[in-house]
Amino acid sequence: MEAYRKEIEGLEIVTPQQLEEYRIKFLGTKGIVKSLFGEMKNVPNERKKEFGQVLNDFKQFAETKYETAKEQSAGNGQQAVEEIDLSLPGDAMQTGSRHPINLVRKRILDIFNRLGFAVADGPEIEDDWHNFTSLNLPEHHPARDMQDTFYIHQNPDWLLRTHTSNVQTREMEKGKLPIRIICPGRVYRNETISARAHCFFHQVEGLYIDEHVSFADLKQTLYFFVQELFGKDVKVRFRPSYFPFTEPSAEMDISCLICGGDGCRVCKHTGWVEILGCGMVHPKVLENCGIDSNKYTGYAFGMGIERIAMLLYQINDLRLFSENDVRFLRQFV
Ligand code: 2NL
Fold it and tell me: Which of 332, 330, 333 is nearest to 94 (CA)?
């Protein structure tokens, strides 16, 4: 016991691990104190009292050492806690950023809002009439092939809309004129996914119907729009085109933002980039939606938001918009 006392006195217990080792060695169920008590049975009866006292003293001694060391190491821990400076600034929270498609959509809508266009929306799951037939795209029309889409299994009349024109046909059917709306939304096409095509993308379409609406109104409105979006120096040109729902139809190009019209990869060395399609609403479309085409005329246009975002931010792969890679998304404010 004397030897153990010396050993204990000389021990330096600092870490919780050392404390636990000490406890197991001296005070544990198979520890030294326990085993010394086990010796009691070998002590003659007349000396048991004396031996018991010495043993109890030793036990007390060993326990005191444990308690003191425990308090000290707890004290060390306490000190460590107090060293944390609560007045320091915290870890910065990661804030998100807006998706480039949303940023561009907002810019487009803001411009048309200022021209008096109201935002309208409608269903992404649409029936054949509102997506195709009412827009002068009857069942076997070849232009339907270019807008091959996804059909809903349970009902062959239902499909994922291929453009946001369904919003406009629904608005026309309501019978309230004039109409001046801008329609943003997600649309679907059955396309093989690549850098330039995806099975879904985002569109903004506009529609203006009133008495005496002319192609000149269309040109001036779109010219104002691109000047607001791309800057006053932008040039425009209209090329004749074909859409089943407009007549006449045109595609609008702007002077290339990258090379200023000198020719580069973005404009394929033409100096021009296509940004939207447009035209005068086909009389048949007006009649399909219950509007008197002798009294009313209108223009319509449509553009892909991805395409405009790619031009504005010089993005060369459409897939980046839907991959949700934060290294890409973080770059837009
Ligand atoms: C494009 C071309 C266009 C329209 C969309 C439209 C809608 C109605 C009636 C007539 Cl309800 N036209 N929309 C017209 C011309 C072109 O979009 O390239 N979009 C990405």
Answer: 330
